[in-house]
């Protein structure tokens, strides 16, 4: 497998080449063939969002950085920098902006910031005189996504900025870029204490797109208050389903091959498969300690894999259907984004310990960097305290 993980501490990204079954925390498991770092620019210019875009000259890695630039790299062995777009967010302003979304749709790259600025790049021009356009949407913005089949149609929302659907252009963002609002969501009814329910849209995913028309859409949203909501705009402006999945904000979303299911992760340590139609929790992908900041699903006819990158400095790969952990790699830095490029790369690298030493060591002690990463994670502290309390109760009884 060949994966990319962004490293917040160094401001660069890492390429991981390994096989299925790799586990850097296990003495007897296969180890990564290599972990290489690229374009480290420091934490102030760390990568906030990352995606991979297909072009006529091969795939391109696109990285939206905290300094307001959008860097584009070749997917060769050295990940050479192709070009940089600077017509992005104003990173040095008093109210510092951040990238909220980086997506590819209708053949163009769209980078949206929290203050509502949308930067559009034509990927076919990045090797020459790069073409960049921009427009503004209502802020604050936490989610921005394009419709997969309707050209120029997008959905966005944020904190106290309910979900909206707009048409940015009809043919080309470089010819007729003019935002036009098509739909605006309406808040759910007051809670049982008759208090207004706060709004915080964190992610939007279009579903059942074959049923969409020019005036109606089907989509789901996640919120900063742990809810998953389903909308069918032909039935009105309010969601037709509203379920609470977590007590923590839902920040990341990944799709599966089943349009009725979606994978969500919160700011604690929960990554779960959620059935949209039934409004039920199907299963959890366990292992991460701390918030999962990077989430990417790799869907082909042969396999379905989920990649996670968390604050515990591990990149994990799961089989979406069985929830089995396929790979686990320690990268030594907080991960903000992940991407699985392919599953054919990599070869098994055995641990260097001989058989006698393996028998003596039931479990390899953590490397110093791994131990430090766990010690600074508050979730581990609470788990240890809870275990200590349970052991004390058992001794008393």
From TrEMBL:
Chain positions covered by the region annotation Disordered: 344-397
A GO cellular component entry from the record: preribosome, large subunit precursor
InterPro entries in the cross-refs: WD40/YVTN_repeat-like_dom_sf (IPR015943), WD40_repeat_dom_sf (IPR036322), WDR74/Nsa1 (IPR037379)
Domain of life: Eukaryota
Any GO BP annotation: ribosomal large subunit biogenesis
Subunit relationships: Component of the pre-66S ribosomal particle.
Family: Belongs to the NSA1 family.
Function: Involved in the biogenesis of the 60S ribosomal subunit.
Protein name stated in the entry: Ribosome biogenesis protein NSA1
